[in-house]
Structure formats: structure tokens, C-alpha cells
Hints:
This protein has helices at residues 5-14, 64-75, 124-130, 149-162, 170-186, 223-228, 245-253, 283-300, 319-331, 349-365, 382-395, 413-432; strands at residues 22-26, 41-45, 58-61, 78-79, 82-83, 87-91, 95-105, 112-117, 135-140, 189-200, 205-207, 211-214, 257-259, 274-279, 305-307, 309-311, 337-344, 373-379, 403-407.
Amino acid sequence: MKLYEYEAKQIFEKFGLAVPKQIATIENVSELEDLPLNFPIMIKAMVLIGGRGKAGGIKKANNIEEAKKIVNEMFGLTIHGYPIKKLLLEEAVDVANEIYLSITTDPATFDLVIVTSASGGVDIEEVAKNKPENIWKKTLRDNPKFLSSDISNEAADFLVEKNPDLNVVKEKLSNAMISLFSAYQQSEAKICEINPLIVTTDNQLIAADAKFVLDDNSLYRQAPLLKSVGIDPKSKRHDVSEQTKYEAQAYGIGFPFLDLLENPESFQKDHDKLYVGLVPGGAGYGIFSIDEVVNIGNRYFDGKVVPINFMDSGGGPSLSDVADMFHLLMDHPATDLIITSRFGGISSCDIFIQGLIMSLRDRYISKRRMIPVFGRMVGTDLAAARAFLEKAKRESPDPLKDLHIVVGNQKIMADVIKDGIEYGFKNKKHLEKGEN
């Protein structure tokens, strides 16, 4: 669960971190008239996504006329496709220096990671890329409940080394790290980030921004904390504002889907590689499919095979849901090939093949992009599925000319994947040459 900035700041205050004075959250411009506003103030869009400042979602107002103009403009704004429905108003503070500070969990090792930099207020990714020497990083493998002063002092020393002006707030920086770490651990968070942690002109530390992501698995334990900031612990608010176009589409339909490519809408493909979409028979097999595609790609194709997604199509999806799964991947600009598998248990092979063929026929009739599909099905309703597939190929061979489904278990899935990848590379070359 990702928190809005004003919610995160309320929690930060509970752990001793100072934040700008929160004036109000508003949902329309008329609310400004009833608020005690001491200018200048900051006006911030409340969306669960980064990059608000660059998109015009954070602005300073020096008087009521500016505030009304900014509020009206923001309520007509969308940030990365998401409309602004709520704004935070808070006091503006005088800035002397800006610090980056975060605590997170390494998803590969589950170790805790502390990151800080004297180059705050900008994208930390850009700092890491262009000036990695300006970032201090510490991995904690023993998951301590509290942060030791030795570590926080080490980080503060680094910040002072990079910016000697910070020496006057060195002890405060160390204490802020300890406080943020306590907030992270006691809230069972996945990410706590302040960017920027402002050093004011009178040498105070203020958390001017706040990113706070809680572990969904711990929400029932964190009910008192959530209620204290006005959040229903049973709510299902996730990071939907950060979903890709295709994740949002799948979420709307009702099946789990994750893009493995960064920024898939604007992704630039490597023409030497084959990008494989996956429609597996369940979550576990979805994970296995990713690994197997990578393993076979490394073993036989010089590592030039890239799985583009995780998907869970288990649990007995409807015919239309199956069709939508294939539509989504064929609409995905990265997809060169689709690998699919149906181990019919709860799910029906018959429903699966009908949904797949329905999607191919629909796309053929509407002249939408067609992608080769390789796969295997075995299990529940296999006889009916085989009969439907054979009849469909007789009745409409053209839409199904690039559908290659092994019926039964006479071929292992690894060989199906290898055959599909070989075909995918050949098909890609034909398309690049303009051949049919």
C-alpha cells in the first residue's frame, strides 16, 4: 500500500521527523476561501506517482490570486495519465540545502538498504548514473530493529564530506536517519524516502517530501497506525498510479499482469533480441516460464531472448478473459512471440483454446497485429479442446496459421519454448525484410 504524501508526513511526525506545516487537502478551488493562508505556500498534486514536479504538479504560490490560478490549472492536469483529484497545501520553507535519504528492502536479498546523498531534490537515478560518487549506500543484512549511531554517524560524515555546509546540522542528520529507520521498521514498510530533506536557512531539518510504501502482508498488524492517519486498513489501495498502461488494462479486466520492461509504452527494442510474451497456466508456472525462457535463451540463443511479462491466468478464467490476455500481449509493442501453456486442473483446456482462437479470429477480421503463438495444453477437458482446435483450423486456417499448440504431453514444455523461439527469430527476420 502506497501512502499519499500528506499521510506519510503524518507518520513521519509520529517518529520525530519535522515536516512543513500542513494547511489542508482540498478537492476544489472554492475551498481556498475558507482557509487561513499565510503566503508563500506550496501546492502539491496528490497522486501516487513520481515526477510530479516535472509534470507541473508542485508549485509555489505567493498570494491568493496565484493560488487560485495554480489550483485551477492543477485540477485540469493529468500526470502520466492520472487525473489530479486532491491537492495538498502546506507552508513554504526557506531552503539552504537539500538531502536525499531513503530506506528500502533489496527485492533480491531482502536485506535493508540505506541510501543518502547531499544531492537531494533531484532524481536519485540521475545522480546514480552521472555522479555515483555522490551517493552513500549501506546494506544491513541482520535486519536490526533500530539503526546504530555508528552507521548514522558514518552517513552524516559522508554528507558533510560532500557538502561542508552541512557540518552545522551533522548531529541532526544522524538523528533524522535514526528516526526514519524507526518509522520504516515499526511500520513494516517496504520504502521510506525523503527527497528532499531540506536544511533551512536557520539550520532546521524539514522533510519536504515523503514516499511511504507499506507491506500489504502487514496491514492487519498496522491497523492502529493506519487508522490514526485516516486510512481503512482493509482498503485495497495499491500502487495503481504507477501501473503501466498494460498493467492497468489487466487490472481493469481482472487478472494479474506485470511488465518486466521499464517504460514499456516507450520501450526501444534491440533488433537483435526476441521479446517473448507469456500466457502461463497459473502464477507458479508464470514464474517458471520466465526462468525457462531466460535459461533456453542463454543456452541456445546467445542470451538474446527477453521475457516481457509475468501473468497469472490460472483459477478458471472465462472465455473472454482468456481472449483479453492474448489481446493484451498482441497489442503490447514489445511482443515478438507468445509462449503459452495450459495445465488444465481447475482451468479448462477447452475454454482456454476457445478464448485463444476467438482472439485470433477477432484480430484477423479487424486487421489488428497478429503474433505467433507457441504452446502446449494438457489436462481437464483436453478431448473437447483438441476437437475444437482441429475443427477451427479446418474452418478458418488463415487466422490460425501462426498458432502452434501441442495437444497432450508428448513434448516437454522446454522443447515447445525452444521451437517457438527458433520460429520467432525466423519470423522476425522475414518481417524485417518485408516478407510474408
